[in-house]
Write a structure and sequence with these properties.
Layout lengths: L20 H14 L12 H8 L3 H13 L3 E4 L3 E4 L12 H34 L2 H16 L2 H9 L7 H11 L4 H13 L2 H10 L2 H23 L3 H24 L1
Antiparallel strand pairs: 1-2
Helix pairs in contact: 1-3, 1-4, 4-7, 4-8, 4-11, 5-7, 5-10, 6-9, 7-8, 9-11, 10-11
Length: 259
């Protein structure tokens, strides 16, 4: 009898990880912490020394250190340098380095996204009460500038270090300025700056072209709706647009780190 062809079992394979220079720096330093070669209280080499040791740019070193600080693994002390912190007890430092680095980054970004949402919700409710005609004019200009830009081209330019400004951040900070409270503006700016911009944008550039386009179109619709609701003094509608923004950002983060 003719032997039936054995069906081949599917293998649990995943696409190879695309690792950036910054990701590589983060993973190397996390690995040293994982192996105990860097202990809590140890001082890291200076930025210049790390640049020489790794053969990378200052911006890459700074972004990696900024990410590690947001992940709770290092802290900068003014005039002293950067030091290793006590790792969080709930992380499994026995897992492989790529999984550990991914888990730390994902948790950090989701926590910061949650903090942003809570702060911006209150900012919006205050902005619709205090917004002036001048604030409306400035916000309308910020929205027009954002919509006039090819977001994908802007994100790509930012990732390549050719662009430092952000039409997206300008909208959110302009809404904060509409509250009339400069402390809220500074608090929001601090949260936006805690995650390096290239890390925030990476999710937009790692998906399929169709997925990237869907996300970018959704972002444009959300920011148009958010700005119009704030300018018209519609607090409940503005908060609904903010919730959609939060949900989209969460989807992008979870998709990026799952990949």
């Amino acid at each position: 009898m003719r032997e039936r062809k054995r069906e081949q079992k599917p293998l649990p394979l995943l696409p190879p990880r695309r690792v950036t220079v910054v990701d590589s720096i983060i993973e190397q330093l996390v690995s040293l912490i994982q192996r105990g070669e860097l202990k809590p209280g140890d001082k890291l080499p200076s930025e210049r020394r790390l640049m020489e040791m790794l053969g990378v740019s200052r911006s890459s070193v700074r972004e990696a250190l900024q990410s590690l600080a947001a992940m709770g693994l290092v802290e900068g002390r003014a005039g002293e340098g950067t030091f290793i912190k006590q790792p969080k007890p709930h992380f499994d430092f026995g897992m492989d380095i790529a999984s550990l680095s991914t888990a730390l980054q994902r948790e950090m970004r989701l926590h910061l996204l949650q903090a942003r949402f809570l702060l911006e919700k209150e900012i919006i409710l205050l902005a619709v009460q205090n917004i002036t005609d001048e604030h409306r004019r400035v916000l309308d200009e910020a929205l027009a500038e954002y919509l006039a830009v090819d977001q994908f081209a802007e994100y790509t330019a930012a990732m390549e270090g050719r662009l430092t400004g952000s039409s997206h951040d300008r909208i959110h900070l302009t809404v904060a300025e509409s509250t009339g409270n400069p402390i809220l503006v500074q608090l929001l700016k601090t949260l936006l700056d805690m995650v390096p911009r290239t890390l925030r944008l990476r999710g937009f550039l790692e998906g399929s072209p169709e997925q990237n386009q869907r996300w970018i179109e959704a972002e444009r619709e959300i920011h148009r709706g958010l700005c119009e609701a704030v300018m018209q003094g519609q607090g409940a509608a503005a908060v609904e647009w903010l919730q959609r923004h939060y949900d989209l950002e969460k989807e992008i983060i979870e998709t990026y780190y799952r990949q």
